[in-house]
Amino acid sequence: MAENIQNRVQQLNVQVVQLTQYGREKEAMDIALHAYQLATQYLGQDHLEFADSLNNLAILYQEMKDFEKAEPLLLQVKEIRRRVLGERHEMFAQAVHNLAAYYHAIGKHEQAEPLYQQSLELTRQTLGEGHPEFVTSLNNLGELYRTLGRYAEAEPLLKRAAEIARWILDPKHPHLAGILDNLGQLYESMGRYAEAVPLYRQAMEIRQEVLGENHPIYAATLSRLAGLYHLMGKYSEAEHLFHKEIAITRRTVGVEHLEFVKSLNNLSQLYLAVGRYAEAEKLLQQSLTISRRVCGEEHPDVAEILNNLGWLYYVMGRYPEAYTILNQTVEMKRKILGERHPNFAISLNNLAIVYQVMNRDTDAEPMLRQVVEIRREVLGSNHPDFAHSLYNLADVYQSMQRYTDAEPLLKEAIEVWRRTLGEKHFQFAMGLESLAKVYIHLQHDYTEAETLYKQAIEIKRQTLGEQHPDFSASLHALAALYSFVGEHDRAEPLLRQALEIKRTTLNTDHLNFAINLGNLAHVCAATRRIEEALTLMDQVIAIEDHLIGQVFSISSEDQRLAYLESNKIHFYQYLSLVSLHPSALAVQNAVNVVLRRKGITTEALAVQRDAVLGGRYPAIVPKLEALRTLREQIIQKTFAGPGHEGLSAHQKILSEWNVRKNQLEAELVQQIPEMNLEQQLRQVDRQVIANVLSEGGRLIEFVCFERYDFEAVAVWGEAPWKPAHYLAFVLPAREARCCSDVRLRRSGTH
Fold first, then answer.
1. 10 Å Cβ neighbour count for 621?
2. From the CB of residue 374, how many other CB atoms can be counted at a distance below 10 Å?
3. Using an 8 Å Cβ cutoff, are 567 and 514 in contact?
4. How far apart are the C-alpha atoms of 32 and 332, rounded to whole Å?
5. Could you please report the per-residue DSSP string of 225-293?
6. CA distance 471 to 641
7. Contact 707, 720 (CB under 8 A)
8. How many beta carbons lie within 10 A of that of residue 405, not counting itself?
9. CA-to-CA distance for 340 and 374, rounded, in angstroms?
10. pTM here?
């Protein structure tokens, strides 16, 4: 009977392993518990099959993120095998290895490392270096070092594992695929993307042939390659693979499974990167619903999805929602994972960044300090993520104008990135650019700042190419430095090059495009080409008017006021140019701009109006809601710029959405008198005003603005902003087209 029970338990344990490999943890758990009960009742707690049952249960608990239940089981397995087999046995070495893997998974790296090292040495002694278990030990210790950012130690271990695996295993062995996959992850972490791609592809091909396409491990390989393409900016290839992964995961484990949730989450991050925010939000909300149903509210995976949703809202500018969700996430992770876990640090970092954008730097600083300390303790001071936490803390110090505090942090971050990622990595370039700002504001060392900007440009040229938006941003930063020190002849060609890159990679009503135009206009004005500057600034104002109208339609009152305040600079610079060059055409355009800004301000009432009208006209509530949603989509798409679909497709989408928006507004105008008034106000210009003035009447429009001196050079101590001025625009009745009759006067200062 005992022999039959032992065989039965052994069969059940094999089934558990197979089901776990296919992601069917719930079925596996039922069988594992049955095997455990049989082994406990009939075999006793010193039997090896009993130890195997415990081991399987522990692995399942880890898969289901119930870590507290896993640890005592793994410790018990280790003790049974030590007692029954001794410490010089391969099964004891495996027990040590499994305990190390557990500590690795929960972030207790200091406990995992000596156990991995012990397991490696025991396996070498008991099985030799030509055994698959030795390869596994090499691989997992290398993976730990990769996690810790100790890439120089990880690479020889993972390369040795791959070398032995190729020697002892069949070229199509799944274990070889896993090792190639891990080596690819190492190269991805190091920014060596070109070396990672063929490794991922080889792993994918092996798994496709051996496991077939309907297998969760094959789906995970697709996800890995898709994530790499995402990093490389190959968005269409990434999206295709992510969709394929989702389809496989849906077929193999179903939608009520954490692996399916993970697949949706991966695609959402791609959509976030390319500005498809509505689609990203939908996927994250779906992921959140499923994970709450499967795991309950207090679960690490639920917290992770909330973190991503909060960050999405931050990127979208929905700061109150981002603040609320990230606060909730931080508290959940504090309770579930504790304050020393790397994932807790991620959410705390994100919440601090939201505080920054809300101008709460003093609240953000202690949080970012805590992130630095957590990563120093958990990851060590030679990890790229530790360097990034230093960079973020330095950023808040720069925002607070504490440049002396920012400088040493940036230098340390740059040195860590140099050691771990090398000098050809995007993050290294990012650190150089931030340090350049410190040299400008703290030391006034413009020569050193120029050197750093040029170095960053060259790194991005080599790694991203000359048509990448980040390369354009670096050109723009160097041009801003040249303009700041009065070297406009050096700034102009860089600004024009950056502008052309943005013209092909962003929509021409994107905010960054407007900023580039504005800086080029500044250079033209500083070199006394006022007409050219006005032409450029006309485009800037038109873009900003368009964006202001859209932002107003979906923002709170405080957000609208803040956005108006941020747009004053270009408006005042535009009026300063008009005062320098009061030609008939310039004055005519200026009158239109001033009147248009007044018309746009009426958009500030759009949200409240929709709520009021919804109560007054309940039958049209669905149309008002559709209009609100469409406005949100248009503003989000406009600010995000072209995604993987390319510029022409991006413009086509916006055009279709605007046509639909105009149709909805036209339909609502027929049903709601108030809507007609709003549309009339939007279209106000000098012609409209002149036509409604009484015969012989005059409209005198006063505008107060701070005059800007374009030729002032800041480094020479010259203040560009001058005392406030008034402009008076005189518009006679019926004569809007007669530019010579529109008067421009300076009426004094205050």
1. 13
2. 21
3. no
4. 30
5. HHHHHHHTT-HHHHHHHHHHHHHHHHHHH-SSSHHHHHHHHHHHHHHHHTT-HHHHHHHHHHHHHHHHH
6. 16
7. no
8. 16
9. 6
10. 0.66
Residue 652, token pair as written in the block = 């086509």
Name the residue among 6, 86, 25, 13 with its Cα closest to residue 54: 13
Amino acid at 526: A
CA gap 148, 189 in Å, rounded = 11
Closest CA to 390 of 404, 403, 371, 377: 371
Pick from 282, 321, 288, 319: nearest CA to 302:
288
Other residues' Cβ atoms within 10 Å of the Cβ of residue 29: 19
Residue 212: other Cβ atoms inside 10 A: 10
CA distance 531 to 424: 42
> Cα(93)–Cα(76) distance, rounded to whole angstroms?
14
Sign of CA dihedral 60, 61, 67, 73: negative
What are 18-71's pLDDT values in tens digits?
A: 777 766 778 888 888 887 888 787 777 778 888 888 888 888 888 877 788 888
Phi, psi of 682 (to 5 degrees): -60, -35
Distance CA 678, CA 599 (A): 8
- What are the Cα distances from residue 273, in Å, to 104, 359, 492? 30, 25, 30
Spatial separation of the C-alpha atoms in residues 693 and 629, rounded to whole Å: 38
**What digits encode the pLDDT tens for the residues 686-736?**
666 777 677 777 777 788 888 899 999 878 888 899 888 888 877 777 664
Work out the average pLDDT over 627-644.
66
Closest CA to 603 of 653, 637, 563: 563
pLDDT digits (tens, 9 = 90+) for 228-246: 988 777 778 999 999 999 9
Query: Using the 8-state DSSP alphabet, how is residue 555 labeled?
Result: S
Tokens encoding 631 = 């406005």
* Domains in the chain: ranges and CATH: 1-85 (1.25.40.10), 86-168 (1.25.40.10), 171-247 (1.25.40.10), 488-682 (no CATH), 687-749 (no CATH)
Best CA proximity match to 389, nearest among 599, 329, 380: 380
Contact between 109 and 148 under an 8 Å Cβ cutoff? The reply is yes
739 and 588 Cβ atoms separated by less than 8 Å:
yes
Q: Spell 166-187 as b/e; 16+ CB within 10 A means b.
A: eebbeeebbbbbbbbbbbbbbb
Q: Which 3 state secondary structure label does DSSP give 723?
A: strand
Distance (Å, rounded) from C-alpha 287 to C-alpha 628?
25
CA–CA distance, 73 with 174 (Å, rounded to integer)? 28
